[in-house]
Amino acid sequence: MKNMNRLEQITQINKGLTETVANEFPKMDLNSLNFKPGPESWSILECLEHLNRYSRYYNPALAKAIAKNADGTFTGSINYSWLGKKSLDIVRLQNMKKHKTVKHMNPNNSQLGRTTVDEFLKHQEELQQLLQNAKGSNLNKKVIPVEFFKLLKLRIGETLEFMVAHQERHVQQALRVKQQLAQQVAA
Predict the structure, then answer these.
(1) Sites in the chain below the pLDDT cut of 70
(2) Rounded-to-integer distance, Cα 165 and Cα 183, Å
(3) Structure pTM?
(4) Count of domains in the chain?
(5) pLDDT for 60-88, tens place per residue?
(6) Residue 8 located in a structural domain
């Protein structure tokens, strides 16, 4: 991935996440998808629902921002604001520290069904299209209001990267839950 620009790298990671979810979770039974390793832990469906809640806000915000800033000034590199750096640092896989999510984004103890997986995959298709559309946009335009505090704004590029990094973190979490379920069944 060394010769790819950052947007291409993010796009490839997003494709991999979509394939992982499409291959790993749809064939599981509903009880397995709702298995929780502990009372405060999230199930596979809760991990995906958390991401769906973010996508419901950020995908339309990104679509609007990309359309408004499709001025052909694409560079492929992303400049990061202090808020963008901080947001990315929190959600990166390398950051093993647990973080509390805002209450309305926390799906713990939700009643969820298979449609949660379907919705996640639909959001992934939307995000993939947004990543393609962003190739004609100014990625460094600061226009995306932060979901929990709309006075703060992120740049288009850092928001796209945040979305994919955040998804990567929680898809890995869902895969760990699946592994814990397999270990419990085997015991």
Answers:
(1) 1-4, 72-76, 187
(2) 27
(3) 0.92
(4) 1
(5) 999 999 999 887 666 667 889 999 899 99
(6) no
pLDDT of amino acid 104 = 82
> Would you mind telling me the total number of residues written for the chain in this entry?
187
Q: Which residue has the tokens 């505090």?
A: 149
- Phi/psi of residue 142, nearest 5 degrees: -90, 95
Buried b (16+ CB within 10 A) or exposed e, 23-50: eebeebeeebbbbbeeeeebbbbbbbbb
Q: Max CA-CA distance within the chain?
A: 58
Tell me the DSSP string of the chain. Answer: -TTS-HHHHHHHHHHHHHHHHHHHSTTS-HHHHT--SSTTS--HHHHHHHHHHHHHHHHHHHHHHHHHT-SS---S-----HHHHHHHHHHSTT-----PPPGGG--TT----THHHHHHHHHHHHHHHHHHHGGGS-TT-EEEEETTEEEEEEEHHHHHHHHHHHHHHHHHHHHHHHHHHHHHHH-
Residue at 86 is within a domain: yes
In a domain, 22, yes or no: no
In a domain, 98, yes or no: yes
- What are 11's two structure tokens? 């796009």
